[in-house]
Specification:
Bound molecules: iron/sulfur cluster
Radius of gyration: 19 Å
Number of strands: 6
Strand content: 5-15%
CATH class of the domain at 69-224: Alpha Beta
Helix content: 40-55%
Order of helices and strands: HHHEEHHEHEHHEEHH
Distance between the termini: 46 Å
Shape: elongated
CATH architecture of the domain at 69-224: 3-Layer(aba) Sandwich
Largest sheet: 6 strands, mixed
Structural class: alpha/beta
Oligomer: single chain
CATH superfamily of the domain at 69-224: Uracil-DNA glycosylase-like domain
Number of helices: 10
Length: 234
Amino acid sequence: MKEEMLNLIKEIKRTVKLYNEIGMLPPISSRREEKVLEEKFLEKINSLDELKKYLDGCKKCKLYKNRKNIVFGEGNPDAELVFVGEAPGREEDIEGRPFVGEAGRLLTRIIKAMGLERRDVYICNVVKCRPPRNRDPEIDEIKACLPFLKTQLRIISPKVICTLGRIAAQALIGRDFKITQQRGRWYSYKDIPVMPTFHPAYLLRNPSQKKYVWEDMKKIMEKLGLNEKNKEVD
Ligand code: SF4
């Protein structure tokens, strides 16, 4: 399928070049054509493995240049709960797995405190390649990679999405989302309830904020019918 997609894109580029050579505007811009084609192609993908194969070697945005690994995401493909962070960090880039650094270990403790294991949930990021020096992903990078996250969410079809930090909330809820003022309330992404909370990396810098995240997790547990048998995350 990937081969088919690449051939189609090549064909469109060739057509656009021909139009340009004879001084005419192509019917629609090649970039838009590519976007439409990719959307159509992604709609046909119905498994995470297939999507992962499609992403293999992706160079859609400049983040490919410095990455060691694409950090696709991991966990239960039928998870009821999906955690979405913003981007892989150094350790994630090296291991090719999401949330394995210090912030990841804190997320694992949060998941356990909810009475779950990492293998019960699905964990991924908005962008799949590490931004240099862990800077925030830029708008063009988010735009390029977001269709892959959206496809992951369509395939998994969870009961609840928990966004971690501002970038993930803005990607799924809206560009104006303000994490400090708006976390802890229910939003919706394609009819899936979304609970935005702080990123674990922020909690490492601001441990006093953990209690708010725990409040948000309790709302998720209630939505999922999980018993609240645990106490706050330390
Ligand atoms: S961040 Fe996403 S779009 Fe950019 S190169 Fe990596 S996988 Fe491709």
